[in-house]
Design a protein that fits this description.
The protein folds into 2 domains: 69 residues; 156 residues, Protein Transport Mog1p, Chain A, CATH 3.40.1000. It is built from 3 helices and 13 strands, in the order E-E-H-E-E-E-E-E-E-H-E-E-E-E-H-E. The strands form 3 sheets. Strands 6-7-8-12-11-10-9 form a 7-stranded antiparallel sheet, sandwiched between helices. Strand 1 and strand 2 form a beta hairpin. The termini are far apart.
Length: 235
């Protein structure tokens, strides 16, 4: 026995018409199938629309970041203030104390904002990239392993000596220490570098401090002191 879909009364399973209300049950079955198919199609469309919308949003964020990341840092002197060994940038809202006596220069790469160098070739360099949108701290963008791997991709001969998550001005940051050998003007140099990366608002900051291998033991504390002096500012 089954129940009539119209009046609800009990009728034989093979009944085409309800003996009580007289309704054609085959029509009701077709309508039920159509309704179910309609619901399924609607659900599929809703899922598809949601997927496409999600992809569009993700794509917009990706291309926004990619386009911004390719843009060059604004190196206008109007944003800069240098007092002794203190460098401040009002546009990118940070300050850092370079080692005393080092020469402060404008960066020589598209995203190298500023650097300080000494007579031995040691340097502290600041990279700044505009991500185009605020995506949280650096741990929400990359893992420490991914950041370390990016150094290998950039410097194929780099050897990672240490890596860890640290705090710079109360912001989560990635610290990587690595060694690398490179040639410049037929001269081979063995360098040890300290790299710290962090994000704040829509900017990504990378501080790279390096020294020749033979000089690194005596300059390491000086390089680390300069990195720790990095402070984000609000105006």
């Amino acid at each position: 026995m089954k129940n009539c879909v119209y009046c609800g009364k009990s009728i034989p399973d093979n009944s085409r018409f309800c003996v009580y209300c007289g309704k054609d049950l085959s029509v009701a079955k077709e309508e039920s199938l159509i309704t179910k198919c309609s619901h399924k199609i609607t659900n599929i469309l809703n899922i598809t629309i949601l997927f496409v919308a999600t992809c569009c949003i993700a794509g917009f964020i990706y291309y926004s970041i990619a386009n911004k990341a390719r843009s060059t840092a604004d190196k206008s002197k109007d944003h800069e203030e240098v007092i002794g060994n203190l460098y401040r940038n009002k546009k990118y809202k940070f300050r850092i104390k370079y080692p005393v006596g080092w020469e402060i220069k404008k960066g020589d790469g598209p995203n190298i904002l500023t650097k300080a160098v000494n007579k031995n070739g040691s340097s502290v360099i600041i990279y700044v990239k505009d991500l185009g949108t605020n995506l949280g701290n650096i741990t929400e963008l990359f893992t420490l392993d991914e950041w370390s791997e990016s150094i290998h991709e950039k410097f194929l001969l780099a050897k990672i000596l240490d890596r860890k998550e640290v705090s710079i001005d109360n912001e989560k940051a990635f610290f990587v220490k690595y060694s690398i050998m490179y040639k410049a003007l037929d001269q081979q140099a063995d360098v040890i570098a300290l790299t710290v990366a962090l994000t704040h608002n829509n900017f990504m900051y990378t501080i790279n401090a390096s020294s020749k291998n033979k000089l690194f033991p005596e300059e390491e504390s000086l390089l680390k002191e300069s990195i720790r002096s990095f402070v984000l500012e609000s105006y």
